[in-house]
Design a protein that fits this description.
It contains eleven helices and five strands; from the N terminus they run ββααααβααααββααα. The chain is mainly α. The strands form two sheets. The protein has a three-stranded antiparallel sheet with strand order 1-2-5, with no helix packed on it. Strands 3-4 form a two-stranded antiparallel ribbon. α1 packs antiparallel against α2, α9 packs across α11 and α10 (191-200) packs across α11 (218-230).
């Protein structure tokens, strides 16, 4: 039974995003999958380390620490923003704004699992999730993060059609999110404000001789083209 409710976030650019936070059941199942993966890794490592004596014991202690505290951080900072267990449940971790999780936030939310565990069996974390509409545990509250269903993230605002143009350099996840959010807000901004923001991002666009986007709002059209390229509309413009 789903207990999830719709959550509306707003990016720093003022774009509204609809997200559906994951409830206790989905997150518990994801945790069990990840716990099983960590257990299998530790089991095989123990078989290898057994003949090593004291060195093997030290190795296992270090491995246990790494699996317990850094296993989720490493996976949350990947493109998927999710551990294998969360991916199986179609979940991922984002900031409250809907943007990709930051390293500091991931470390914070995972270090505070110790507080969520108190007094035992993740009782504090469960109580926190069951009493909140966004199903945040204590670590999420401290880090400003959300665990949401991946396929339910929706951008409010339809990006205007534009010829798809690749960026001039590789973009970080934050830069990609900012550009897509900006173009989704196009209908809510004046042309002058759109141009002003587009000029700031001029380093990721370039005039394309094959695309007629020159004119008064050249920077805006080029950046809208980059947004279409990031959205996967890379065949002939604004439609997939």
């Amino acid at each position: 039974m789903s207990l999830d409710t719709l959550y509306t976030a707003e990016t720093p650019e003022g774009i509204a995003l609809s997200l559906r936070p994951a409830g206790v059941m989905a997150r518990s199942l994801a945790y069990l999958v990840d716990a099983g993966i960590r257990l299998v890794i530790f089991f095989f490592a123990a078989l290898i380390a057994r003949p090593m004596g004291g060195v093997g014991s030290a190795f296992l202690m270090i491995l246990y620490f790494a699996l317990e505290w850094f296993y989720p951080v490493v996976f949350e900072l990947t493109k998927s923003g999710a551990t294998p267990g969360k991916r199986m449940m179609d979940l991922h971790v984002v900031m409250d704004s809907g943007l990709p999780i930051t390293p500091a936030a991931s470390i914070t939310r995972n270090l505070l699992r110790a507080a969520d565990f108190l007094p035992m069996g993740y009782a504090a974390g469960m109580l926190s999730m069951l009493t909140r509409r966004d199903f945040k545990r204590l670590g999420d509250l401290a880090a400003g993060t959300l665990v949401v269903y991946h396929q339910t993230v929706q951008l409010h605002g339809v990006p205007p059609p534009a010829p798809a143009v690749p960026p001039t350099r590789q973009l970080s996840l934050k830069e990609q999110a900012a550009i897509v959010s900006w173009t989704g807000r196009s209908a809510r901004l004046t042309p002058a404000r759109l141009d002003e923001l587009a000029v700031i991002a001029a380093s990721v666009t370039r005039p394309d001789p094959g695309v007629n986007v020159r004119g008064e709002h050249d920077a805006t059209r080029r950046l809208q083209g980059v947004a279409q390229w990031l959205l996967g509309h890379r065949q002939g413009g604004g439609s997939p």
